């Protein structure tokens, strides 16, 4: 088995239209899909790439309106490298970026142009003259010879010592070690460089940070990769259908979330290839929410359907201090999950198996507690001890939003322990679980903060997915 190279990289943005204008307008990529987050459907999931949406060209964003600013740190990807075919292409991009008001920095050895996107994500244009299959998009203002031809690499901040994941990368996934924390994945027709830098400190996920990176597997090898990663001693998810590919997820020893995604079925499975990204496409599981989502999601215009050139966008000053706001519900959209009118003809929902639900809730609670701890540590600059976290969970107002979930878990514990308990109590507790977290209501304090936690900690999304499967 051999990985085919990169599949996609996913980030977080605070402004969907601004991201579309920057990447599909200024950088000339094609917007190949406008859909929503599988696990938080009130947020867009936007995909950009070459004309066909080929693996290796894909950049995607979860768009959480007004998301708190993130900061890359230990165990996080901090820079993406976009490939161009020639050195003269770098000159073209210098002029184009500067004309749009984007600050750039040129390096000579190796030749590269560095800049940041509107959310503060660090980008670098590099020359990759040996690209076997250029992955270009068509843009009226970007000559074909200067177009971006895919992704060449990424740099991450180490979350452990540099060799912590060497065995995983080399022995399990088939990377080649180049020394000093640098690796290369050669997929035959494409290659991808992967490297670590020493971290500046702890980071926090939010706008302008990378959520995960996905490697490209052939369809027939996908289950084999799951078995191989599991055999390397890592927890790996079951195969998840993402409509446009199938995926498995695992967190590697440096702390970075890895995904392995398949080639098929591709982005044209639900759209005419000539009109990719022009309409809102919903995952099958969320199609019943279409009317509400079309009402509550902010309008996003694809440049190919009428919006041509983006206006200059204000960029973050890298020298300005980053202030991460505590999450609140004020910037979230109206509740996309209004209560349904009861259907008298519908059969009653089956009672939940509280013992199983309890275990899933405990995992969700642990991930939410971890997320709140990281936020407090980032704000104070001091790591909390386990004793401090326990004390904060009971008395610190910054953790108070978790107490509703804690109380519900305690009540479920009591019901599970009472072998002669009233079935009506079990049904009522099951209904409370569904009301609180399935899906979380952004109009409530708990629901709003829960959704914020999904933005900042991918482990929360995975724990929520496992719980949702029971609800």
Instruction: Tally the beta strands.
Output: 16
Low-confidence stretches: 307-316, 320-342
Structural class: alpha+beta
Question: How far apart are the first and last residues' alpha carbons, in Å?
Answer: 37 Å
The CATH topology of the largest domain, please? 2,3-Dihydroxybiphenyl 1,2-Dioxygenase, domain 1
Reported for the largest beta sheet, the result is: 8 strands, mixed
Query: What letter string, H or E per element, gives the SSE order?
Result: EHEEEEHEEEEHEEEEHEEEHHHHHHH
* Rg (CA only): 23 Å
The backbone outline, from C-alpha atoms, is globular
Q: Average the pLDDT over all residues and give the rounded result.
A: 85
Strand content: 15-25%
What attributes characterize this protein structure?
471 residues, 29% helix, 2,3-Dihydroxybiphenyl 1,2-Dioxygenase, domain 1, 8-stranded mixed β-sheet, 16 strands, alpha+beta, 11 helices
Description:
The chain has 471 residues and is of the alpha+beta class. The protein folds into two domains: 5-262, 2,3-Dihydroxybiphenyl 1,2-Dioxygenase, domain 1 (Roll), CATH 3.10.180.10; 354-468, no CATH class. 29% of the residues lie in helices and 21% in strands. It contains eleven helices and 16 strands. Strands 2-3-4-1-13-16-15-14 form an eight-stranded mixed sheet, covered by helices on one side. It has an eight-stranded mixed sheet with strand order 6-7-8-5-9-12-11-10, covered by helices on one side. Helix 8 packs antiparallel against helix 9 (423-437). The longest helix is centred in the C-terminal third of the chain and has 27 residues, at 354-380. The model is unreliable at 307-316 and 320-342 (pLDDT under 50).
């Amino acid at each position: 088995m051999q990985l085919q190279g990169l599949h996609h990289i996913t980030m977080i943005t605070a402004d969907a239209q601004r991201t579309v204008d920057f990447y599909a307008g200024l950088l000339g990529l094609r917007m190949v899909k406008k859909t929503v987050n599988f696990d938080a459907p009130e947020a867009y999931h936007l995909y950009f790439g070459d004309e066909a949406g080929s693996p290796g060209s894909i950049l995607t964003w979860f768009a959480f309106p007004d998301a708190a600013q993130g900061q890359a740190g230990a165990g996080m990807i901090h820079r993406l490298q976009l490939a161009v075919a020639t050195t003269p292409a770098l000159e073209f991009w210098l002029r184009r970026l500067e004309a749009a008001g984007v600050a750039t920095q040129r390096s000579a050895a190796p030749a590269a142009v560095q800049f940041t996107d509107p959310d503060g994500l660090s980008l670098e244009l590099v020359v990759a003259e040996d690209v076997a299959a250029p992955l270009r998009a068509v843009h009226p203002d970007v000559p074909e010879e200067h177009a971006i031809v895919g992704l060449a690499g990424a740099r991450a901040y180490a979350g452990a010592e540099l060799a912590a994941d060497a065995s995983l990368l080399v022995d399990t996934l088939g990377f080649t070690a180049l020394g000093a924390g640098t690796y290369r994945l050669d997929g035959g027709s494409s290659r991808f460089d992967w490297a670590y830098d020493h971290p500046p400190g702890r980071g926090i996920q939010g706008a302008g940070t990378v959520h995960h990176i996905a490697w490209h597997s052939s369809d027939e090898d996908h289950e084999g990769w799951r078995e191989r990663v599991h055999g390397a001693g890592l927890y790996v998810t079951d195969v998840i259908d993402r409509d446009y590919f199938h995926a498995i997820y695992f967190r590697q020893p440096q702390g970075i979330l890895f995904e392995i995604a398949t080639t098929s079925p591709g982005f044209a499975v639900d759209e005419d290839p000539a009109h990719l990204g022009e309409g809102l496409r919903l995952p099958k599981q969320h199609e019943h929410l279409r009317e509400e989502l079309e009402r509550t999601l902010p309008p996003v215009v694809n440049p190919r359907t009428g919006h041509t050139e983006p206006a200059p966008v204000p960029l973050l000053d890298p020298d300005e201090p980053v202030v991460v706001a505590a999450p609140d519900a004020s910037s979230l959209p109206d509740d996309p999950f209004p209560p349904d009118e009861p259907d008298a003809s519908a059969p009653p929902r089956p009672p939940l198996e509280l013992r199983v639900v309890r275990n899933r809730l405990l995992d969700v609670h642990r991930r939410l507690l971890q997320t709140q701890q990281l936020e407090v540590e980032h704000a104070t600059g001091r790591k909390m001890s386990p004793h401090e976290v326990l004390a904060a969970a009971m008395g610190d107002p910054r953790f108070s939003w978790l107490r509703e979930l804690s109380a519900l878990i305690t009540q479920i514990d009591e019901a599970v322990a009472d072998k002669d308990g009233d079935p009506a109590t079990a049904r009522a507790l099951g209904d409370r679980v569904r009301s609180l977290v399935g899906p979380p209501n952004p109009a409530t304090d708990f629901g709003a903060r829960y959704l914020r936690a999904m933005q900042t900690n991918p482990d929360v999304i995975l724990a929520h997915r496992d719980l949702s499967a029971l609800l």
